[in-house]
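Chain A, query sequence.
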Amino acid sequence: MALEEAPIHTWVTGKFVLIAEEDTARDRRLRLVVELAPGVAPSDDKVDAIATSVVRALLLRSSEFAHYVPRERQRPDVVLAAAGTLRGFPWG
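Chain A, predicted structure.
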């Protein structure tokens, strides 16, 4: 889905962790940690492309997301992790 779009699929391994975080006001946001493919450098352009792709996919597939998550909180916080650094995923 979102990570399989071109050119995103060339930047990532497909491994990710999705976290729902709550702030002090009890508002929730999504944090998405995505593992970069070996040799791929992180950049703001990659973060923006991934966040946009995720929002587009969620809007298409989830009417609850589209109607109940305020627009200003729909964009996930995207963190790019170096290849092999996501804990809980075996390498290879």
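The longest strand covers residues 12-22. The mean pLDDT is 92.
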